[in-house]
Amino acid sequence: MTAGGLQTRPLWQGRTLAVLGIVLCAFSLRSAVASLSPVVDLIGRDFPLSPAIIGLIGTAPPVCFALFGLLTPLFERRLGLERVAVIALSAVTLGLIARGVAVNAVTLVIATALVFAGVGMANILMPPLVKKYFADRMGLMMTVYTTVMAFSTFLPPLVAVPIAETAGWRTSLSMWAVFALAGTIPWIVMLVRERIGAPQDTTAADPDPAPEQEERIREGRDVSLEDAVAAATGPIVVAPSNGRIFARMPRIPLAWALAAVFATSSTMAYASFAWLPTILVQYEGVSAQAAGPLLSLFAFIGLPASLVVPLLVVRFRATTPLYIIGALGGLVGALGLILWNRPEIAWLWVSLFGLVGLLFPLALVLISIRARESETAVALSGFVQSLGYTVAAVFPVLLGVLHTATGGWQVPLWVLAIMLVLSIPAGVIVGRPRTVEADWERRHGRRW
């Protein structure tokens, strides 16, 4: 059997270590993000955590993703994918352990920064690792890896508080280091094999199917669910390969609209992971035991979205309807939290607000299909993600400052609601079936 000119073989055949390495790494990417905020109140019993500190912790993921999105390609060129994967997962392991033994707010922030430095590097490495070891099964492996990421997003909030109440918050935070540490082992074994000249756990050097797959995706024909998920997860690399193309992006309205979509998606996600449990406890009257599962419910919405949204966008061009559903669902959820703050119906508002989870896979697949050339897609990805993560980095701190200034959570929630409303025009713009190259040519009257 062939795929894009490649001879395919079973996923595990001859590359078990690569499967394990990628799955364990993917699990560690999101569990590190989602495991802290549910136990913030319990940590606060041992040492004070101001809203500014919690906001700073919530800002760490997008800041590290933007920074290490630029640095990781440089590390990879010097050290290779597998070595950088070991470094990234080791940083996550050490950071998670350090977070569990933190003695004050400063050490907690430093440990969290170390965790997300590793996550930021690993986030960049996943697509090229999949491409290297699973060129014949890219769509399938991307589906596996994104599903694992979605699972590891909603699992930690579900168990964080029960484990913290049983074994302490330090155990609840540091236990996730086991998965990151386990994730280093397959890559270390593969590096040792390479050093001693043992057979490599990889695919044969066959022609790269990516260009053909990209062409099918951009033309909207012969696209499977696997291909669509691969498109949605592929443009993670932030560093642009062509400075001239990257310099054109600020002059293209479509690029700005995509950046607004990505910024809205990222802001809703990281603001929620930083503050949603606290809002539910302090403003909605939910118990700490229930706040964690409700954050898990919010994250769970992203699991089916990551599988279905790319296919709906690529095959059925449902971009604008999906964006409006995500934005308006999030808006209704935010308004419900503001105006009808009763603990017995908090699950309804969280579920509706969780529809913003549609926007992340939507933004990623649009980065791929709104560019004609792969080099343009890389530059577009760099522009969109750099701006998006910069905006997302501001909001967790901003919401904490607003909470301190107003003494409540109404104003921070209104800010999120207003952002969703303001983003709708950008969602309409990105729904138009054109590329950034065509946008440039139409505005400037010359070929790309």
Automatic annotation (TrEMBL):
The keyword Nucleotide-binding does not apply. Coiled coil: none annotated. It is a multi-pass membrane protein. Keywords: Membrane, Transmembrane, Transmembrane helix. Residues 14-435 form the Major facilitator superfamily (MFS) profile domain. The chain crosses the membrane at residues 52-72, 84-102, 108-126, 138-161, 173-192, 254-275, 295-314, 321-340, 346-366, 378-399, 411-430. Its main location: membrane. This is Putative transporter YycB. The gene is yycB_1.
